[in-house]
Every structure is written in structure tokens, then in C-alpha cells.
Amino acid sequence: MLHSDVDKGDGSIKYILSGEGASSIFIIDENTGDIHATKRLDREEQAYYTLRAQALDRLTNKPVEPESEFVIKIQDINDNEPKFLDGPYTAGVPEMSPVGTSVVQVTATDADDPTYGNSARVVYSILQGQPYFSVEPKTGIIKTALPNMDREAKDQYLLVIQAKDMVGQNGGLSGTTSVTVTLTDVNDNPPRFPRRSYQYNVPESLPLASVVARIKAADADVGPNAEMEYKIVDGDGLGVFKISVDKDTQEGIITIQKELDFEAKTSYTLRIEAANMHVDPRFLSLGPFSDMTTVKIIVEDVDEPPVFTSRLYSMVVSEAAKVGTIIGTVAAHDPDASNSPVRYSIDRNTDLERYFNIDANSGVITTAKSLDRETNAVHNITVLAMESQNPAQIGRGYVAITILDINDNAPEFAMEYETTVCENAQPGQIIQKISAIDKDDPPNGHQFYFSLTAEAANNHNFTLQDNKDNTATVLTRRNGFRRQEQSVFYLPIFIVDSGSPSLSSTNTLTIRVCDCDADGIAQTCNAEAYILPAGLSTGALIAILACVLTLLVLVLLIVTMRRRKKEPLIFDEERDIRENIVRYDDEGGGEEDTEAFDMAALRNLNIIRDTKTRRDVTPEIQFLSRPTFKSIPDNVIFREFIWERLKEADVDPCAPPYDSLQTYAFEGNGSVAESLSSLDSISSNSDQNYDYLSDWGPRFKRLADMYGSGPDCLYS
Known about the structure:
This protein is mainly beta. 8% of the residues lie in helices and 31% in strands. The protein is elongated and about 170 Å long. The chain starts with 12 loop residues before the first strand and ends in a 9-residue tail after the last helix. Residues 4-84, 85-193, 194-308, 309-413, 413-530 form the Cadherin domain. Its main location: membrane. Pfam families: CADH_Y-type_LIR, Cadherin.
């Protein structure tokens, strides 16, 4: 309430209010100065309002006192319950934790004024989750209340926590939240095998690294606390088997390290230990965190293929060996207890040329053909060993046969030499250095000896010098070589190798005489250059030859064009004329085309077809088409046949919905002329008259001459 000292109570003073919330929240009685609130106030929205009030003269509307400013403070009441702004909560705590282990802290907030009364003073209590957990009333810290809580028995708990203001007194407001507590795992369970012993049967043919068995020790823990390692600690299979762990399933996987042999050992016993990899010292009192079991592996007998005494046989034979020479022997046996006899053969895919044979019973390998080291120095063949009682069991052995070399190839020039000698060469001048090759491969390498043949040893043109290093040098003996006298020399050279026995060959070196420049480089080696006429050069001869060739080509073209000209289509009446086919690639224009074809002829079968002249055919070949006749009688058989097919096409649901061509192969009941066979005519006394054949055109003239009754008839 506001009151001015000037106000006498006679109504001459008027009060007005301005400022924060004036007229909307607060109003003032202009006569008395009383201030009223027009709506409910909420301290949590706004706790203070600043207002200004002034007293005015009602008549002059002028202030009678200075303006006054005052603050309205909203007094709090307990109208807000505590709230858990971060709820609901999730937390975890290790299993087997001692009593009082902190789990999580919950916090509730109250919007009421904490400085006024107990409206914002909150205490916590647990409504659900006892007796396993408790909560600190003032701090909201949740702790374990029971010892040795086991995750394997129950791994999750749902708690309900309450926060109440007014220090928990009656009449206070409250709020709740939920807390999900999960017990995390610790390694408090040692691994244990479900069984004290295991037994597995495996065939002896199982390949290396194959899985024999999977065993697993049970562990109630999870994650790293359940990780295990397995090892074979004892038994007679320590070197034959090994065990590893599957990281995903924590199983022990037993695999084979060495091949099994039923005939050598029929069973193995393994002592296997499983142990946790991460042991918690706090729980060692619960027992050893490892366990043992026994695994017995029974080896089963299988029918095995024969086994060779060696995986690879190495043999040698001379390439001079005769057919049937013994090279070596292979041996295989049946490893089974039955010890079935073994038969041998060669895999011909490895000996396509059939150079070798093998005795089926003894395994002795012999030569079947002559050998050539230069063709194939080493033969790798596969020998098959089959059980006599079970041919499906096949063992394979590998034989490498090395062919020993003999001196069976004579030496020869290393290459084709192109040797030249200059016309101005001097005596003793080197014109060629030669070498030799030999397909043989002697142990100590090649040694070749060069010399001229006996008939060439005394020639006056060239000589040969052996360099003693598998090469030889050809030198001139004289000077003054002239191409016009002799343009080419042939020098036979005798080459001998160092084999035992030695082989030799005669190789001819071709030496051409050439015109050389000052540096001794050949310019031209053609002897014809000296015998050309003085007034005719090489270029002129080439031009003359080109002209002659051009004339020949023109003559050939003229002859070819004349032969390709079309001959006139004139037929000899004496020629045996058979069938002539004239092809027309015409297409009708469909139903709208009424010019190309007479559609009425298709609809009226009684109309006689006339021969019409085609506009696209020259008159001189029109007689090749089959003759038609104006006076063809109405054939009832064909008419009925066509009408029946027309009806079938009209009712056919698969027929196309447009005009289409239907083709039928129907010849009627036979020809009125019956058979035209000349054999039949001779053997029978037929009085048939064939004179009408003369009217059928030139194609039937030969038949008319043979069967007609005219004066030209061949037979009477």
C-alpha cells in the first residue's frame, strides 16, 4: 500500500504505478494506493519486480511528491518436487565386491529456494534393490550392501531411488529414478573339462595338418577371464599331434603333425592341460585355474596305395645304348598288412615318345628306342605302382633319367659367313676369321682343329691358319684379284673335333671378289658391271625392263577383259536344256497394293491363269519360264484341297491377323502322262502317243525325238 502525506482523504490525490509488471501483473488503486497482484506469482520464474509509484493532483495531473521506486520480492513456497535430470542411470560393479563398494552417485535438483526453509533440502532413499544395494541419504552414492554377489548367479539388478525435499519430512515432495546395475565379470571360475577322458577314431590316410578332434574346458567366466591355452603335457603322441586354441570358441584343436601308419602304431594317448591365461590372485583360493584330461586317438586301417622306396630315382644311360638296355630298377610295396603284389607301368603322359619300358613285375626300366642327348638331355618319367588285388590303389614314383653324351655330331661353321676379298688385296691379308660349333657336350669342353682339304691345300689364292683357340683365320696368298676373271671362290675347310672317336666335316667358305674403297670397304661385288656395253648404263637397263613389264601387264588385262565378256544368250537346239531358274526379288505392297498381283485370283479358284509378260524380264529369256495353258480344266481335287486349307487357316487361332502366304506340297493323284521312263517304255508294248511333247518347247525336244512317232524317232 502506498500513501502520500499530502493525501487528506478527500479524493484530490490520484496514484499511478509503472515499471516491471505494472498493469499486467500488478495494479494500484488510484484512490487508496493499494497494490494488488492480478495473477499467480512463481518465484522460480521471477523472484523480484522493480516498480515505481507517484502521487498526482487529480485536477492538475501534476505530481505532488517525487516518484518513489520499490522492489517486490516473491517469497518461496514448496511447490517443486526434486528431479533427477540425468536419470535413468546405468552402472557396473565387479562381482564379488566387498560391502560398501561404491557403484554410482545419483543427483536430484529442487527448483525451490534453497535459502528459505527446507523446500530445497533433499534426502535420498532406496525403494527397490534391497538388500543388495544401499544409498547414502545426503550424497546419493549407491553402494553394495551384500558381499560375494556372483555374476554367474545373477548379473543385473534394477534399483529405484527416491529423492524427497523438506529433509524427508511428511508433506515434502519427492521424485524417483531407476538405476540399472550390472555385475561385471572377474576370473573367479577355474576351467574344467566336462569329461575325464575322450576317444577319437581317425583314418591313417588323414593328411597332415588335418583336424583330429576339438575339446573344450568349460569356464563360467566371459571375455578375457575365459581365455585359455591348451598344451600336451604327456603321452606317446607328443611329436605326432599338436594342439592349438580357437580364439573365437576357446576350443582346443588337435591336429596331425606327422603321417599316421596303422601298421606301425594303432593308437596314441595324450594328456592335455587347459589353463586360464589371466588369473586373478584374489581368487587363487578357489582352486587351481587349470584342468587335465586324457585323449585317446585310435588309428583306423585304410587300403593305402603302394609306396616306393624312394620319392625320386636318378638314373643315367648313354645315348649310344641299344634298345633293351637296362637303365635301372624301381621298387614299391603295399604298406598294408595284406602286402598285395605290385605291378609297375609308366605314365605315358610323361613319356609320350615311348623311349622307355618297364617290367611289370620286377620294375626294371629299359630303353625302347634310340636316345639322342641333343634332342632331350634329361627324361623325367612317372612310374605307376598298382596293387594286384585292388588296381584302384596306385602309387607314383618319379624317375629322372640323364642321357650321357657321346661324340655323334660333327663340327660345323658357327654361322653363315659372307666373306669378301678386295681386288687390291695384298698377300697375307686377313679376310675372315671363322669358328665352329658342335651339338655334343664333352666333359672337358670342345677343341676344334681347322685345315684346308687336300685338294685345296695347294691353291694359289688363299691359305688357312689355325689359331689353336677353336678359331681359324683365312688369308690371301696373292694380289691382283679381278672380278671379270673370277668373281667367286669356294674354299673347302676341314674341321675336326677332339672327341673319341673324333668326327670331322668339310664346310665350304664362299669368297666374293669386290671393288673396295681406300679403307678396304667393299663397294660392289657384281662382275656384270664390267661387261655392260659402253653406251648403256644400269639405269637405262632398268628403265627398259620397266617398260617391258608394263606392256606385258596391259596385254594380260586386255585378254582378261575379253574373256569376261558375257556371251549372248543363244541356245543351241541340240544342247541338253534342263531347268533354268529366273529369280525375282519382288515384294508386294500388302493389302493396299492392287497393282503387283491380281488378288481376285486368290479368292476365285475357278479363274484360269494367263501367262503375263513381266516388265522386268527381257523378251529373249521369257521362254525359260514354265509354259502355262489357257485351256486348263477345272480340277476338283485341287479346288477341294485348297478350300479345306483355307477354312483351316480361317479358324486357326495361331494364324497372324494379316494376309499371309500358306504353302502346301500337294501333287494330286498323278500325271495323265503316267511314267516317262525310257526303260519302262521299252519293256512294255505301250501304244501311248507322245507326239504332244513336240509342242512343249525346246526343253522337251529330246524326249519328243525319243518317244515320238515321227520319221526322226530313234526307236521303232
